[in-house]
Structure formats: C-alpha cells, structure tokens
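Entry type: protein chain
Record version: 2
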Amino acid sequence: MRPNITIVIPEPYLPLDEYCRRTGTNKETAKNLIEYGKLPIKAKGKQKKALVEVNMAALTIQALSECNVSLQA
C-alpha cells in the first residue's frame, strides 16, 4: 500500500514582490523568467496593469512532477 501525503498550498498566488522576497530572487530575474514562460503567473485578462501574481500551485505541481511521484487531485 502506498502512503498518502497531503500537501497544503496556503497561498496559491503570491504577488511578485513577495515571491522575490521569500525566494531571494532578483525582481528583474523573476520578470525574465515570466517572459520566458519559466515562472507561471495568474492570468491578468483585460487588465494589463493588474498586479502580477506568481502561481504557487502550478510551481508546486511542477516540482512534484519532477520528483517522479504519482499525483492525484
């Protein structure tokens, strides 16, 4: 029997400034990662000047998928 592990994502989205503060990533580097599609963000829709929010849920799923684990939502 496989063990079950529950992963809680307390904040599915983080403002870019907070993401950079928590990870120690330079803001310009983070913007470049977004531009190259390496850092997922929440879609802004028609609000082009909306707050940029990093999609922490997508980053968590990406990290788990790279660990060769079975994901079940």
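Comment: The CA atoms of residues 42 and 53 lie 6 Å apart.
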